[in-house]
Write a structure and sequence with these properties.
Four Helix Bundle (Hemerythrin (Met), subunit A)
Length: 138
């Protein structure tokens, strides 16, 4: 996958999560189990699985601008190294793994796996930034 395709995949994953979140909220409101005002921002609400979905979505959205800036900068600067082509794939895979593990459980082992996937993403984004700067400055 090209870095731009990876960026689209990352954004698509964010859309999958927000659409799922909206569907759950919509169902709860339409079923009369919740009011539209029962979903305050920044305050834990709903059951454990619902809240993990909410957080998985927000975690994804928080990292999308950083990933997007890196990929777009690399493309604009005509970076084409193997590292630039590989790291975005690693980042997308780690993001999906982190989200799926987040959705699956709140147990310690899941939290550790989720954190490992997060570290892979952050490290890969840092390396991606270094690769873009290294290539652009030469």
């Amino acid at each position: 996958m090209s870095p731009l395709v990876c960026l689209v995949a990352f954004a698509a994953w964010a859309l999958v999560l927000v659409t799922t979140l909206a569907a759950v909220r919509g169902f709860l409101v339409l079923a009369g189990r919740k009011r539209p005002t029962d979903f305050p921002a920044g305050v834990q609400h709903g059951g454990d699985a619902y809240w993990r979905l909410n957080r998985a979505h927000l975690n994804t959205v928080e990292n999308l601008p950083i990933f997007g800036a890196l990929v777009l900068a690399g493309v604009a600067l005509h970076v084409s190294s193997p590292l630039f082509r590989t790291l975005p794939q690693v980042i997308v895979i780690a993001r999906v793994v982190q989200s799926l593990v987040h959705l699956s459980s709140g147990k310690s082992i899941a939290i550790n796996i989720r954190f490992a996937a997060f570290i892979v993403q952050v490290t890969s984004m840092f390396l991606l930034a270094v690769e873009i700067l290294r290539t652009a400055l030469h």
